[in-house]
Design goal:
- InterPro entries: DppA_N, Peptidase_M55, Peptidase_M55_sf.
- With 274 residues, this protein is an alpha/beta fold.
- Helix content is 31%, strand content 24%.
- The chain is built from seven helices and twelve strands.
- Strands 3-2-1-4-7-8-9 form a seven-stranded mixed beta sheet, sandwiched between helices. The protein has a five-stranded antiparallel beta sheet with strand order 6-5-10-12-11.
- A hairpin with a 5-residue loop joins strand 11 (238-240) and strand 12 (246-250).
- Helix 2 (28-48) runs parallel beside helix 5 and helix 6 (226-232) crosses helix 7.
- The N and C termini lie far apart (52 Å).
Length: 274
C-alpha cells in the first residue's frame, strides 16, 4: 500500500518552545534534525512492513524544514510553500492510509505549542464540531476515503486524535507540563516507540474508518479580534457576525472549505496592531 505522511514540528519530542520551531531562532537546526529523525523511524518501518510507496509532506510553517539529504532514500518529499492544500498537499484516493507526525492540539486547548494554523485563530468549526489542524486534515483524508492510522505528538494531541478518530493508533513522544514545557522521550526512545506504533497502526488498519466530512460543510472561524475577522471577511462568499469575530463560509465540499480556511487565515495575518 501507499502511505501518506504529514509532518508538523510542534509535536516532535524535545521541541518544547518557539526556539525549536522558528527558523530565526537558535534551536531550530536541532529541531530540524530531530524532526527528520522521527520521520525516518516511521518511513523505514512502513517500508519494512510492506508499504510500496511513502510520500512525505513537510507541513510546518514555510514547509521546508525536513532535511531531504538525511531522509530515508526510498521516500519522496513534498517541500516548500505555497501549496494549494498546505498540510495535506498530495493526498488523494490512491493512498491506503495516512500518518500525522509531530502534530499538536488545536487552539485554546491544553498542549505543547498548541494552535490552529495561525495565532489569530481562537477556534474553528465544521458546523458545530470544533476542529484544529488534525481534525481538518483528517476530514480531507476522509474525503478521499483514506483513514488516518497513526498520530504522533504529545499526550493531549493523542487524546484529541482518539476522540476524533475511533481506532486510531497514537504515539505519545512527550507529556505536557505547560504550553512550553514537557516531559520528553529521548530521540532514541521516541524512535523505538514510533517504530512499534507504526507496526501496530499498519497491522490494525482495517479497524480504522476514514473520517468522512459532512456534505456542504459550513466553516466557522473565530478570530482573536474583530480586525482579523474583518480582513478574513474580504473573501467573497463569507459572512461576519456583528458582535463577535466569527466569519462563516458555506462550502460545496471539504476541499473548498479547506482552501477557504487557508485564504481567510492568510488575510487575517495582515491585521496591524499599531
Amino acid at each position: 500500500m501507499k502511505l501518506y505522511i504529514s509532518v508538523d514540528m510542534e509535536g516532535i519530542t524535545g521541541l518544547v518552545d518557539p526556539t525549536f520551531v522558528d527558523s530565526r531562532q537558535h534551536n531550530y537546526p536541532r529541531g530540524q534534525h530531530i524532526m527528520t529523525q522521527e520521520a525516518n523511524q516511521v518511513i523505514g518501518t512502513a517500508f519494512d512492513e510492506g508499504c510500496t510507496e511513502v510520500i512525505v509532506n513537510d507541513s510546518h510553517s514555510k514547509m521546508n524544514n525536513l532535511l531531504i539529504e538525511k531522509l530515508h532514500p526510498e521516500s519522496q518529499l513534498i517541500s516548500g510553500d505555497v501549496k494549494p492544500f498546505s498540510m495535506v498537499q498530495g493526498l488523494d484516493a490512491s493512498f491506503g492510509g495516512a500518518a500525522f507526525l509531530g502534530y499538536h492540539t488545536r487552539a485554546a486547548q491544553k498542549g505543547v505549542l498548541g494552535h490552529t494554523m495561525i495565532f489569530a485563530v481562537r477556534d474553528m468549526y465544521i458546523y458545530d464540531t470544533a476542529i484544529g489542524e488534525l481534525g481538518f486534515n483528517a476530514y480531507v483524508a476522509g474525503h478521499y476515503g483514506v483513514p488516518v492510522l497513526l498520530v504522533a505528538g504529545d499526550d493531549e494531541t493523542a487524546a484529541e486524535a482518539e476522540e476524533l478518530i475511533p481506532g486510531v493508533t497514537t504515539a505519545v513522544v512527550k507529556k505536557r507540563i505547560s504550553r512550553t514545557a514537557a516531559l520528553c522521550l529521548t530521540p532514541e526512545k521516541s524512535g523505538e516507540l514510533l517504530r512499534k506504533k507504526t507496526k501496530e497502526a499498519l497491522a490494525g488498519r482495517s479497524r480504522v474508518k476514514p473520517l468522512v466530512p459532512p456534505d456542504r460543510p459550513v466553516l466557522s472561524i473565530e478570530f482573536a479580534n474583530y480586525g482579523q475577522a474583518e480582513w478574513a471577511h474580504l473573501m467573497p462568499g463569507t459572512t461576519i457576525e456583528d458582535h463577535s469575530p466569527v466569519v462563516r463560509f458555506q462550502a460545496k465540499d471539504i476541499l473548498e472549505a479547506y482552501q477557504a480556511m487557508l485564504v481567510m487565515t492568510e488575510l487575517a495575518m495582515r491585521t496591524a496592531f499599531s
